[in-house]
Design goal:
By secondary structure, the chain is mostly helical. The chain has one domain. Helices cover 59% and strands 8% of the residues. The protein starts with 12 loop residues before the first helix and ends with a helix.
């Protein structure tokens, strides 16, 4: 929360995920890639923190480990761990915005 500041400055969860570098910055038009945005914008410390949290969650939480294994069966392990970190970033956005407790069942159920 200290690294983010006021959560109200992010109108949507996608803006927060982009700030945390959890999504790629690709410009598309009509299903074709027209360019790449600034991939270095955002907070590198939050990106690192969510990746570390994803590695820890993958080792210690069974639901997250099953989700990771399903993703890794379809893609490579870098993409799979990045999707876990993206899900954790989305969850933390809603926890901070709505002041509710974390519910793993809603996230990985």
């Amino acid at each position: 929360m200290l690294e983010v500041g006021h959560i109200d400055r992010f109108p949507t969860v996608g803006d927060y995920s982009s700030y945390c570098r959890c999504v790629r910055s690709i410009r598309t038009s009509n299903g074709k890639v027209t360019g790449y945005g600034n991939s270095r914008s955002g907070n590198k410390y939050l990106s690192w923190a969510y990746l570390e949290a994803a590695h820890y969650a993958k080792r210690h939480h069974e639901m997250i480990q099953r989700y990771y294994e399903r993703k890794m069966a379809r893609t490579n392990k870098i993409v799979a761990i990045k999707t876990v970190s993206h899900k954790l970033a989305r969850a933390s956005y809603y926890v901070m915005r709505d002041n509710v407790d974390y519910d793993q069942g809603r996230l990985f159920g």
